[in-house]
C-alpha cells in the first residue's frame, strides 16, 4: 500500500471514530441517533469505495507500465 492510500485509510478511520464519539455524546433521541449513524455509515461506505477504486486504478496503471517495460525489453 502506497503512502497516499495509507493516508486515506487513516483519515477515513479517524472520521469514523470521531463521528462515533460525537454521536455518543450528543443529546438526542435514540431514533435520531440511529438515523445519524446510518447516514454517517453510508458516507463512510462511499468514501471507502472511492478510496478502493482509486487504489485499484493505481495498481492497474502500474501493472500496465510494467507490462509495457517488459515488452520493450524483450
Question: What does this molecule look like?
Answer:
This protein is mainly alpha-helical. It has one domain (3-73). Helices cover 91% and strands 0% of the residues. It is built from 2 helices and no strands. The longest helix has 44 residues, at 30-73. The model has no long low-confidence stretch (mean pLDDT 83).
- How would you classify the helix and strand content by structural class? mainly alpha
Give the overall pLDDT as a whole number. Answer: 83
Low-confidence regions:
none
- Strand composition percent: under 5%
Fold blueprint:
Blueprint: H1 3-25, H2 30-73
Task: Give a short overview.
With 74 residues, the chain is mainly α.
Which features would summarize this protein structure in a list?
74 residues, mainly alpha, 2 helices, 0% strand
